[in-house]
Amino acid sequence: MAVQWKTKEVSEQLGVNPTTVQRWVKFFGIQCETNEHGHLLFEKEHLTVLKAIQNQLKSGKKMRDVVIEENEQLIQKPETQPMVATEQYEQRTKQFMEKIAELEKQLSQKADDVVSYQILKHRAEIDEMFKTLQSLELRMAKVEEQLEKQQEEFPLAAGDVPKRKRSFMRLFSF
Hints:
By secondary structure, the chain is mainly α. It has helices at residues 7-14, 18-28, 44-58, 86-153, 163-172; strands at residues 5-6, 33-34, 40-42. It has a 3-stranded antiparallel β-sheet. One of its GO terms (molecular function) is double-stranded DNA binding.
């Protein structure tokens, strides 16, 4: 069995952070074994590939420009998806646009329905307030009539003081 290292040990040998090693493995599709805990296990060939990547990055290359020539069997090439025909793309785009227009129309209709409902509710509230106001006006008119009758029947209740009492009160006021 070949010697295997964990991510931390490889990162120490390369002088980089363990997450950097994990990022390189993921980005370049390096095929590594994992242990029962899910930790990556590296062999000598993996270390050689990672050193080649590190050297190219140190020389100023960007990750997308790095070329791996050694141990290519360790690298999983991403599958390329076929291009979509222009007519098919335009047809799908047209379908999406029609669907979006339909959804916008439904949304607008729903908004109109909500506003109509709110207006009807407000109208009902206004009608109820108007009825309450009319009722209050009638009650107020009745109270005013009763007050006028009381003033006619009982003049003293309206604040009229007989003249005799007024003169008596003047004697004691300063």
